[in-house]
Amino acid sequence: MNTLLIILAILLALIVVLALIAPKTYHVYRSITVDQPPELVWEHLKFLRKQQEWSPWAQKDPNMELKFTGEDGSVGAISQWNGNKDVGEGEQEITRIVEGKRIEQDLRFFKPYKSQSDCYMNLDALDGNKSKVTWGFSGKNKFPMSIMMLFMSMDKMVGKDFEQGLQNLKDNLNNGI
Q1: Known CDD domains for this protein (predicted)?
Q2: SS3 of 64, please?
């Protein structure tokens, strides 16, 4: 019996230590330069429906169910999705717009697990009628997910999707889509 209590105490102490050292937050972002003027690029960032044209998750499940509510391209507009195991179920809501510069969204996942992240897209004008797009998201790692993040990387899990999405956006813009 004493051995069992000692083992349980050690396990509990280990969990507490891991929880204390585990990352409490995450921030993942990627950027790309596009050979198009910011005014044109902005139209592909601002509208939730247009985002589906370059979203890497739309490619992972072309049959996912989509529902849009509110006035697309304005604060309060929501895109809801329900897809296969690669995309899960969730919604994104536009929470802030700095016209022509930045769009912020609340990203809420329901399946495969519940989570919430703050998502953003920044648009910067560059010389020569070029644009820089930065796409990212950040959030908090709650217990016990925070302990799992000691062994997993949110950057590795999502970074490649952001890179693919930005490349899709660039390709679409260069092809006049």
Answers
A1: SRPBCC_1
A2: coil
Over residues 4-33, the pLDDT tens digits come to 888 888 887 777 777 776 778 888 999 999
For 84-138, where are the alpha helices, taking DSSP H only? none
Q: Quick one: pLDDT at residue 177?
A: 65
Pick the CATH number of 2-174 from 3.40.50.300, 3.30.530.20, 2.120.10.30, 1.20.1070.10: 3.30.530.20
User: If we measure between CA atoms, which residue out of 85, 58, 80, 56 comes closest to residue 70?
Assistant: 80
43, 44, 48, 53: CA torsion to nearest 10: 150
Query: For residue range 101-116, what is the model confidence (pLDDT) as tens digits?
Result: 999 999 999 988 888 9
Helices (H), the chain: 2-21, 38-46, 48-51, 56-60, 145-148, 154-174
CA nearest neighbour of 55 among 137, 155, 157, 162: 162
